[in-house]
Fold this protein.
Amino acid sequence: MQDQALQQQLELARSGNRRALETVLTRSRQDLRRYAEYHCAINDVEDAVQESLLLVSRKIGTLRAIEAYTSWLFRIVKRECNRLKRAARHVLMEPADLAEIADIQTPAPSGLLRDIAAALAQMPPHYREIILMRDLEGMTTAEIAHCLDLHPEAAKARLHRARSLARQFLTVPETTPAREAIVPG
């Protein structure tokens, strides 16, 4: 439960009092940092805290209930941590120069991994891209729609078609010897 002084400062900050806002942000910083240390990569903690404090300072006037301040604050920092994680994955997924990795030897994928890689390779690029964004990067439909400049419903439909196509590529046809070996005759 929040103490009475913090609630008063929150009321003043919501109404636009700059000094009260500074007090609220200063008091919230340590809690935000502790929470971010749990949810963010170690290198992103301070960035997440700073971005969260900036967002809180801009949006505190929209906070409807003062009692919800703490949970609102933690949701903001958790969302910021998730955004930073997605950004890091996006950076890591950048295509590399083939000359740099030519000497690297990796074993060929086997089993299900090989089948998924083959199915993705056969798919049209716009379907492959949306599956990777959703299932590998963990982006939401709204984020995908924004990145691809699509309406959210169009992004959902494209994802559905892409997954249906992937299922077709991954389905073992009835006439293959592997299928016949599975089904007792």
